[in-house]
Structures are given as structure tokens and as C-alpha cells.
Write a structure and sequence with these properties.
Helix content is about 30%, strand content about 20%. The chain is an alpha/beta fold and about 450 residues long. It has two domains: about 270 residues, Medium-chain alcohol dehydrogenases, catalytic domain (Quinone Oxidoreductase, Chain A, domain 1); about 130 residues, 3-Layer(aba) Sandwich (Rossmann fold), CATH 3.40.50. Strands 3, 5, 6, 9, 10, 17 and 18 form a seven-stranded mixed beta sheet that branches. A six-stranded parallel beta sheet has the order 13-12-11-14-15-16, sandwiched between helices. The longest helix has 13 residues. The radius of gyration is 21 Å and the shape is globular. It binds zinc ion (2 copies). One zinc ion binds next to helix 3.
């Protein structure tokens, strides 16, 4: 079948991305599902910081590639051998599907199953091969076995988890990455206990979901740290007991002072060396620093070896929130149903309101117009349900001033992303204006 997709042809293009346009919306061919696969109509796909990192070439990927690794959709067709899912079922995608057989999988740690690395590096599906190609026949690579910046995706059965039809798919989408990663870091990796004292460093989509989970899990003290004062305000509204502005030299000392020497558990979600060093510095003696933010592939962090030994400190990674998706997605969605993971309540969440986005599109007219024209001319299946995009990432907002942040909360995320580092998204805005995409934010 033919459909529209946003293709990344080159990593590391120069900024501003609104000009260099690393993503190109193009009509592509998608083969039907093979054995063990299914065709999903993408209902919503997130704009995660990892997508931006891919564009920035923080992690090399085979090109060309359709990115997008966090989403939800409706099963439209199943391949041979798929028995437990039928067309019409709703699913959340999993960007780190597992083999089920290796030593990690059998120990209940499918999130670190190494089979994912192989197909991620070669741009193939976990079931082997590619289902995407350009109209001239050139193969197009898959991102993490998914490729969700498209109207449809063919994915392996194990790349998705069936969910209840009562969950709005645009909310469900960010459970595929931001929620599993953030809430999972607190509930699974840290195994936070009620009454605990915990800090979250970095309040993007992952950090905010870590905060929600800390509140839901009954933390007694929740310290939130970010470089953006507006996010600290949000964090207070959502249950942080103490907030600290990062980016100044005194921050670590202030947190240590206020918490009698630091927190027992500190979750770092920004994926930067500065954030990680701050997280280590505000971890108490005997405490644990958990990093859930994906840094540049070559980034190295240093710490005092002696203090790690004599103060019994530990440093741990948390990938996809140490989740077993089949076990944890229903649990996390259950918390959402109870209002404990209120991804839909965030004030900058914008549902399908395209009006607020148009001024931004006009400001960056040329690139957006070109993409819009292609869309208009293309033979897209107009009857298809529009894709919904939302960002769960703080990337779009980093470095913004508080008033800017509030203003963009009011008018919608894509205005923000054009101002901020995520300006690569401008072709997508054109798609949005044409009704192909629907956008919302939970940055
Ligand atoms: Zn992600
Ligand atoms: Zn495995």
C-alpha cells in the first residue's frame, strides 16, 4: 500500500532545522505483514527527545529511515501465525522488543535483551527485513522495529502490547516510551517505597512521568530539578515538595543543604553529563543514582571512586524503566485510569487544536509550504485517520524563558518546537495544517 511517512535522509544536518529540514514527508510503499507481523494504523506518535537525538546524530542509524518510536494505533491486518491479536485491537508499541529466550529475557529483563541492538543497527524489523521502500524501489529503514512517523506501520507482533479500547490512543502513545521510561525508573528500577525521599533531575516527558510515579507511589519528599523555572512551577502543581533551578553552581549545595545531605534515590532523565553529575552530587551517602536519560553514545561520566566505596554509593542505568511491557503497560495504564499518571491533564497538552499552530507555520513558511504542497499533490489515502503527534520530551522547551513557555502552553507545542531545538519538525507542521497530522504536546 502507499502512504505518507516522514523520512530522515541525513543525520547531523546543521541548525536551524527549520531551514535544513532533516525530515522530509514523502509518499512511500509499505508491504503487508509477513509471518509474526501486523499492520497498524498509527493513531498517535510521540516526539521523543530520542527522535531529536537521532536527527542530531547522537546515535548513528542506517539511512534513509522513518523515525518515530513511541506510539499507539489500531491493528488493521495480521500476518500468518499471529493468533492473539485481531484487526480492530488497540496497541501500544514497544521500541525494545525482546526475543523471549535469551538469558536476560528468561530472567525477566526483556528490556535489555540484546537482539534489539542487531535489528536496530541494520534498520530491520525483529522478524527480519524491511517493509518500507521509496516509490523508486529504494529500501527505507525501520527505527527500532517501528517507524511511526507514518500513517501505517508493519511491526513484529512482539513490538506491541494490546491495550483496552477505553484508553484514548493519543494518551496511550506516550506510554510506549516516556511513561514506561519515567514511571518505570521509579517503580521498577528504584523500587521506590512509600515514604521515600526521591529527586528527579530533568523534567521532560520522562522526568514528569517519574514525578507522577513518585507521587502515585507515596513518596514523602519529592525534589524536582530543572533548568527551566516554568517546569519547576508545573512540578510543584503535580506534587513536587521542593524545586531547585539547575544551571547554577550552587544548585547541588542547595539541594544537599535542604535535604540533610542529599536524597536516597535520584533519578536523572536529561541524558546529559551536567545533569548526571548534578544527580550524583545530590545523592546521599548510601544512596542510589539512577540514570534513565540516553546520552550521546560516546559520553563518559566521572565520579569519585573512593566515595563510591567508602560511602556505599551506587550508580545504575534504567532502560525503558526496567519494564516488562506486557506486565507493566497494563499496570501503568491502570494508574492512568485512576488519574495517577495524568498525562492528559498537563496544561500544555493540546488536543487536535490546529488553529493555534498556524501562526508558527506561517513564520517558517518556506519549508512548511513546500512540504504542504507535496502533501496536497500526493495521492494520500484521504480517508485514513490522521496521525496524531505529541511530544513527551522536554527537548522542545529547554533553554526557554518562563514567559515564553507559558505563552506556548497557551497556543500549542509546535510553535514552541519551531523556536526551540526541535525545529526539525516544520514539515510535519505543514502536514498538520493539511489535516494529515494532529498534534498535541505533553512536553
Ligand atoms: Zn523515546
Ligand atoms: Zn532476549
Amino acid at each position: 500500500m502507499r502512504m505518507m511517512a516522514a523520512i530522515l535522509f541525513e543525520q547531523g544536518k546543521p541548525r536551524p532545522y527549520a531551514t535544513s529540514r532533516p525530515l522530509v514527508i514523502e509518499e512511500v510503499e509499505l508491504d503487508g505483514p509477513g509471518p509474526g507481523e501486523m499492520l497498524i494504523e498509527v493513531a498517535a506518535a510521540g516526539l521523543c527527545h530520542s527522535d531529536l537525538s537521532t536527527i542530531e546524530n547522537q546515535r548513528p542509524r542506517p539511512l534513509p529511515i522513518v523515525i518515530g518510536h513511541e506510539g499507539a494505533g489500531i491493528v488493521r491486518e495480521v500476518g500468518p501465525g499471529v493468533k492473539d491479536v485481531v484487526p480492530g485491537d488497540h496497541v501500544v508499541t514497544v521500541f525494545a522488543p525482546s526475543c523471549g529466550d535469551c538469558r536476560y529475557c528468561v530472567r525477566g529483563r526483556p528490556n535489555i535483551c540484546p537482539t534489539g541492538n542487531a535489528f536496530r543497527a541494520t534498520g530491520q524489523l525483529p522478524t527480519g527485513g524491511r517493509r518500507l521502500k521509496r516509490l523508486d524501489g529504494t529500501p527505507v529503514n525501520h527505527n527500532s522495529g517501528l517507524s511511526l512517523y507514518a500513517q501505517y506501520a508493519v511491526v513484529a507482533r512482539r513490538s506491541a502490547v494490546k491495550i483496552g479500547k477505553d484508553i484514548p490512543l493519543d494518551d496511550a502513545a506516550i506510554f510506549g516510551c516516556a511513561v514506561m521510561t519515567g514511571a518505570g525508573a521509579v517503580l521498577n528500577t528504584a523500587r521506590m517505597e512509600a515514604g521515600a525521599a526521591i529527586a528527579v533531575v530533568g523534567l521532560g516527558g520522562v522526568g514528569m512521568n517519574a514525578l507522577f510515579a513518585a507521587v502515585a507511589g507515596g513518596a514523602e519528599r519529592i525534589v524536582a530539578v530543572d533548568t527551566n523555572p516554568a517546569k519547576l512551577e508545573l512540578a510543584k502543581q503535580w506534587g513536587a515538595t521542593d524545586v531547585f533551578l539547575a544551571g547554577n553552581e550552587d544548585c547541588a549545595a542547595q539541594v544537599r543543604e535542604a535535604t540533610d545531605g542529599g536524597l536516597d534515590t535520584v533519578i536523572e532523565t536529561a541524558g546529559s553529563i551536567a545533569a548526571m553529575q548534578l544527580a550524583i552530587a545530590i545523592t546521599a551517602r548510601g544512596g542510589e543514582t539512577i540514570s534513565a536519560g540516553l546520552p550521546n553514545i560516546n559520553a563518559q561520566v566521572s565520579y569519585l571512586h573512593a566515595s563510591m566505596v567508602s560511602e556505599e554509593r551506587s550508580i545504575r542505568g534504567s532502560y525503558m524503566g526496567s519494564c516488562v511491557p506486557e506486565r507493566d503497560l497494563p499496570r501503568l495504564l491502570g494508574l492512568y485510569r485512576r488519574g495517577k499518571l495524568p498525562v492528559d491533564k498537563q496544561p500544555h497538552h493540546l488536543r487536535s487544536d490546529q488553529r493555534g499552530v498556524r501562526p508558527a507555520e506561517r513564520r517558517h513558511g518556506a519549508a512548511a509550504d513546500a512540504a504542504a504542497e507535496r502533501l496536497t499533490r500526493s495521492k494520500v489515502d484521504r480517508g485514513a485517520r490522521p496521525i496524531r503527534c505529541r511530544t513527551a520530551s522536554g527537548a522542545a522547551f529547554s533553554g526557554m524563558k518562563g514567559d515564553q513557555f507559558s505563552a506556548t502552553i497557551a497556543v500549542g507545542v509546535f510553535q514552541t518546537t519551531l523556536n526551540g531545538p526541535s525545529a526539525w519538525i516544520s514539515p510535519i507542521i505543514a502536514g498538520l495544517d493539511k489535516g494529515w497530522l494532529r498534534c498535541m504536546s505533553s512536553a
